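User: Study the chain.
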Amino acid sequence: MRAAVLHEIGQEKLEVLDDVEATGFGPGKVKIRVRATGLCHSDISAMNGVLPQPAPFIPGHEGAGEIIDVGDGVTGLSQGDRVLLCWLPACGTCPACKRGQTQLCLAGFMNAGTPNFKRPGGDVFGFAGTGTFTEEVVVDAGCAVPIPDDVPFDIAALIGCGVTTGLGAAINTADVAAGSSVAVIGCGGVGISAIQGARLKGAAQIIAVDPVASRREAALKFGATEAVAPDELADAKQRVTAGEGFDYVFEVVGKSATARTAYETTRRGGTLCVVGAGALDDFLQFNMFELFFDEKKILPSMYGGGDVLTSYERAITLWRAGRIDLESLITHRVQLPEINEALDQMRTGVALRTCIEI
């Protein structure tokens, strides 16, 4: 079968090969025919080594498709079911799950260290235990979440990561208050979803911050009240908040420099929500006095900061009701052989989300 493979960490391009086999099928597993997958910035972060991932590997974790085989012991799933892929399934038994913090379950991360593909030359890993830039993938049954028939595969794929992450950051983690002021730094697919979440919660001012003009223009269509370049943020803070700072600032880039800017843009007693996935060696510094004196809340948000199955259902319900726009998040479409075009679109910032149709 065909799949897009990264041979070594640091390579900028993927090679589309036709000698890849999905492996590991057996009890507790399902095999999925991938129909659509989104390109998330985390895929690029794994390719360049920012996020740890063994190589060679197949990127992609934001996917949807149909179940083509079900292993022994699997209940609630059948051949032909339409599903989205959950790259961070909850085990239900660990301390995090028992506390109701299923997004912090480590079971899914353990899958990332087990290869689920192979080629004639050896094993191949799937990013985050999945690997959706391929025609077929074998995953734990918990990774396959049934979707209603009226949800297209491309929309379901987005809900599998970017939409859930951004919406959840605003709704679950930050719990944005009605009438508040919000700034969102980084307006790709996740940032735009955070903007939609803040709008749903009733934020009065939502300032979108991004260096790419097309993303700033898009942010206005999704609910931002103003969109500025990074060097205009200080002026926006002065104009919108009289210099005090925003009630909520979302960092959706994953770099210490932008996180520091986000902290400084947050008002005293306000909330900084860290959504971007950054590198292990990129350190954010504070002095002890400012942490004490400013009383700013720093809230990291992992996968939307809530139960992902509940978040999926909420996103579908909101989309059906027309309260969130998911179709317009997909600004580009490519076929699997053109996967490197999608990477270029992400790196240059011209795409909010590129859908890879498989």
